[in-house]
Amino acid sequence: MELVAVTSAPLPAPHLSLMTSGAIYMGQEIQLQCTAPENYPEGTFHLYSHSTGEQLQTAQAPETKNSVMFTIQSSYAMKSIECFCKYQCYVGNEIQVSEVSNVLSVTINVPVWVFVVVGLVGLLILVASVLVTVYLLRRNKKKKQEERDKDSIWIDQQMTPDWSDGNHNMVYDANSVSKTDISNTYLSNVDSQMESRSPVPFSSFRT
């Protein structure tokens, strides 16, 4: 719980510093130290967001100590953070509040593995798109070929395997059979049909 000061005279401002060394990446813990002047130990320290003014954390300094450590867990949505701190402590019998510290700005970098994952996901999406496109093209080509095959069929389903229609009417390929062969076959069929007919009796006498 934040204490309320009863005096109008602010205490000297603390100093806020970054304790995490090196580059800071998304998802990494960030350590900040808020330090009051040495003659103001055992204070209660508050960390605030500079953009919203929201109080983020509160920490009590140990006995005889004039600084505290704040730990912030950065999220993957953060690009940077800006914070400041202040403290309050007893001066005599009264609680006094300090002025605000310097604003500390921390840049949060994107890890290399994020770029790798994004690249792999993009590559997988590209490969999947190509495979789907190839599949659709092949299926469309196969469908068109089947339609062309259906349109090219001209033989009646009732035709026998010897390429006749069962009524002594032969079907020929105009490119493979000559006209003479067709004529001879036709005459043979006519002779065969005439021989199979019964002769009609003829009489010269009138009844």
UniProtKB/TrEMBL annotation:
The chain crosses the membrane at residues 112-137. It holds the Pfam family Ig_C19orf38. It comes from the Eukaryota. Residues 29-107 form the C19orf38 Ig domain. Keywords: Membrane, Transmembrane, Transmembrane helix. SUPFAM superfamilies: Immunoglobulin. InterPro entries: C19orf38_Ig, HIDE1, Ig-like_dom_sf, Ig-like_fold. PANTHER family: PROTEIN HIDE1. This is C19orf38 Ig domain-containing protein. It comes from Eleutherodactylus coqui.
